[in-house]
């Protein structure tokens, strides 16, 4: 058995050497060898609620559990891949998320990513933050969802309860008198509010 492995290894080595000889080109000789183009990454088409279709790299689409479910079902059925409908996503929100994913994927170092994250978050309005949070949740993009939650939490840090209620559109459960009584009983909890 060891002899067969050695024999097959030597045959493979000989084949590799022969292939290498055919690819060796000396300077000044015309080349008959064509450079191989890198394989094109597969894409998935996503159609937003407002009818815009995006061609998305498979590596980014795989981050979206909702989309991945469609892809898996389509592959299983053997059907051609039609655009995947995203009825709860607008083109503007999807464009922002895709831009974020593309830029982050191209970055190498953690420091660059952190700086980009800060710039990205600062450029968003409160309404955009909430929409992107909901879209990330709908798409099942765990990493982006965590990022948005962190950004919103940082923004709400040291803000008043009223500010948070207003930001999320929450109506208080207590009457004004009940809330005032609660604030007096637990005054320490409200001392750091902006």
TrEMBL record:
Keywords: Ubl conjugation pathway
One Gene Ontology term from the biological process aspect of the record: protein ubiquitination
Annotated InterPro entries: SKP1, SKP1-like, SKP1-like_dim_sf, SKP1/BTB/POZ_sf, Skp1_comp_dimer, Skp1_comp_POZ
Domain SKP1 component dimerisation: from-to ranges: 142-189
Pathway: Protein modification; protein ubiquitination
SMART domains the UniProt entry points to: Skp1
Keyword rRNA-binding assigned: no
Domain SKP1 component POZ: 44-102
The keyword Repeat belongs to this UniProt entry's keyword annotation: no
Protein role: Involved in ubiquitination and subsequent proteasomal degradation of target proteins. Together with CUL1, RBX1 and a F-box protein, it forms a SCF E3 ubiquitin ligase complex. The functional specificity of this complex depends on the type of F-box protein. In the SCF complex, it serves as an adapter that links the F-box protein to CUL1.
Family statement drawn from the similarity comment of this UniProt entry: Belongs to the SKP1 family.
Subunit structure: Part of a SCF (SKP1-cullin-F-box) protein ligase complex.
Protein name as annotated: SKP1-like protein
């Amino acid at each position: 058995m060891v002899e067969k492995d050695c024999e097959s290894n030597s045959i493979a080595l000989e084949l590799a050497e022969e292939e290498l000889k055919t690819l060796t080109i000396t300077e000044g000789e015309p080349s008959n060898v064509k450079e191989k183009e890198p394989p094109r990454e597969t894409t998935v088409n996503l159609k937003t609620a407002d009818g815009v279709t995006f061609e998305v790299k498979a590596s980014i689409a795989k981050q979206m559990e909702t989309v991945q479910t469609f892809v898996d079902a389509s592959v299983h059925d053997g059907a051609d891949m039609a655009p995947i409908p995203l009825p709860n996503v607008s083109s503007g929100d999807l464009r922002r998320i895709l831009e974020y994913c593309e830029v982050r994927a191209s970055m190498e170092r953690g420091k660059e990513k952190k700086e980009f994250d800060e710039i990205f978050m600062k450029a968003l309005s409160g309404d955009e933050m909430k929409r992107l949070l909901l879209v990330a949740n709908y798409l099942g993009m765990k990493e982006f969802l965590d990022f948005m939650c962190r950004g919103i939490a940082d923004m709400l840090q040291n803000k008043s309860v009223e500010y948070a209620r207003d930001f999320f559109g929450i109506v208080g459960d207590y009457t004004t008198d009940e809330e005032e009584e609660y604030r007096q009983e637990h005054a320490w909890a409200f001392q750091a509010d902006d």
